[in-house]
Amino acid sequence: MKTIFSFVCFFFAVSLQAQTVVADSTFVNLKEYSQDFVLDMKYATTDNFLKAKVYECEACYLRFKTIKALVEANNDFIRKGYRIKIFDCYRPLDVQKKMWKIVPDANYVANPARGSIHNRGGAVDITLVDETGTALDMGTSFDFFGPESGHDFKEFAKPILKNRKLLKKIMLRNGFESFDSEWWHYNLEGAKKDKLSNFNWQCN
């Protein structure tokens, strides 16, 4: 009887554990999986090209599969003495509409009618910081809209080009795709197939 009881307890324990497995498509908070990132969520402030705060509070939510790839990429950077600094993660569709209302220009903001990879939980806007927390020189600021922000722009000093190359190399190695005109923007491979979402996180 004791053996049967032990087996039943074990079975229910395994079943409970299975139920808590996170699906790749689930939206999760990055801070619950790693404390090794620097967050500077620009759209939770007025320090952005919109000059408007469009998030209620700072948080980095992404689909779980994106989080896993991002943590692995950050681990690679950490081994080299750097860390990822994050400017933007998942963006609810209602926020995309708010941004479009402020700047209705597809050169700067994705039209919410189509949405962006940010609205699908598969995109991040990032840079790198060193062990002192100082951002590496990438040639332009985040959300600078000009040819200088493109990956093909080569008229920078070698240290800047080296920094961009390092960021791109490790992100691509960990399953991300670069965005030609924005050195800071990376999409998880295949993320464009995910559905647009309007999930919004709770502010403490």
TrEMBL record:
Domain of life, per UniProt, equals Bacteria
Q: What is the protein named?
A: D-alanyl-D-alanine dipeptidase
Sorted alphabetically, which InterPro entries does this protein's record hold? Answer: A_A_dipeptidase, Zn_M74/Hedgehog-like
- List, from the UniProt record, the residues annotated as the active site of this protein: 182 (proton donor/acceptor)
Residues holding Zn(2+): 118, 125, 185
UniProt cross-references to PANTHER family, sorted A to Z:
D-ALANYL-D-ALANINE DIPEPTIDASE (PTHR43126)
The processes (GO biological process) annotated in the record are: cell wall organization; proteolysis
- Report the catalytic activity: D-alanyl-D-alanine + H2O = 2 D-alanine
Question: What Gene Ontology molecular function terms does this protein carry?
Answer: D-Ala-D-Ala dipeptidase activity; metallopeptidase activity; zinc ion binding
Where does the UniProt annotation place the signal sequence? 1-18
Q: Which Pfam families match?
A: Peptidase_M15
Q: What is its EC number?
A: 3.4.13.22
**Record bears the keyword Protease:** yes
Q: Which HAMAP family match?
A: A_A_dipeptidase (MF_01924)
In this chain, the site described as Transition state stabilizer is at: 91
Xref: Gene3D superfamilies? 3.30.1380.10
Q: Which family does it belong to?
A: Belongs to the peptidase M15D family.
Q: How is the cofactor bound?
A: Binds 1 zinc ion per subunit.
* Record's keyword annotation contains Transcription regulation: no
Q: What does this protein do?
A: Catalyzes hydrolysis of the D-alanyl-D-alanine dipeptide.
